[in-house]
Write a sequence for this structure.
């Protein structure tokens, strides 16, 4: 998630991709070891790829923390040429400004000639209305606070990409994890960069089966939770 403040600062991570320092929370949106590297490792490789093994006809994805839109772009890049219809819902409480979004370098670093237009459409599209990025890929950007939201139990996969518990502890508590559990279909998966012991105990308490996976560069572990 982001804070929408003008003093947000863009910086270059170690893999050459941009991230942002969120002034309001005093943390960055991504790992300094690489924004694209981290997102691919945590959300695409650990979350999306296992669900694609059987080539499902449809996938429903919920992202908590739209932030820069990087996870949407990476997911679109992976699925655009596949025969899979995607519904992607992304919640954000504090959107980044369009001016900042326009300067982010993700489309130029990810293969795909249409990604700049897709990235622009994502950020310029209206909130709380469906955005059709392609005939098979629809995004709904939800503007609001997670504590106030309710979700239909239709999702195959959750990208839980809120700021760290040290910055937004209210987004990692039992009530929120119960909400995430309820939003998933049976067998649905939640993936996140966070691997704190208290967080994993909370996941287990609400009913998830928790797996520890190797983390991206700079982190020993990440978490995968299955309903």
């Amino acid at each position: 998630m982001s804070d929408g403040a003008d003093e947000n600062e863009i910086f270059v991570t170690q893999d050459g991709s941009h991230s942002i320092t969120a002034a309001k929370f005093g943390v960055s949106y991504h790992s300094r070891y690489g924004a694209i590297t981290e997102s691919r490792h945590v959300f695409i490789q650990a979350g999306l790829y296992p669900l694609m093994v059987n080539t499902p006809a449809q996938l429903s994805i919920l992202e908590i923390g739209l932030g820069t839109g990087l996870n949407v772009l990476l997911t679109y890049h992976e699925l655009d040429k596949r025969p899979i219809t995607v519904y992607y819902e992304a919640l954000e409480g504090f959107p980044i400004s369009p001016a900042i979004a326009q300067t982010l370098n993700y489309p130029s670093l990810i293969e795909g000639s249409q990604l700049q237009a897709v990235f622009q459409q994502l950020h310029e599209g209206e909130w709380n209305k469906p955005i059709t990025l392609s005939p098979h890929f629809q995004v709904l950007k939800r503007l609001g606070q997670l504590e106030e939201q309710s979700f239909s139990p239709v999702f195959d996969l959750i990208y839980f990409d809120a700021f760290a518990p040290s910055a937004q502890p209210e987004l990692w508590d039992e009530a929120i994890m119960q909400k995430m559990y309820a939003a998933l279909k049976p067998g649905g998966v939640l993936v996140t960069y966070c691997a704190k012991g208290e967080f994993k105990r909370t996941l287990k308490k609400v009913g998830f089966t928790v797996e520890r996976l190797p983390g991206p560069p700079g982190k020993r572990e990440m978490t995968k939770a299955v309903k």
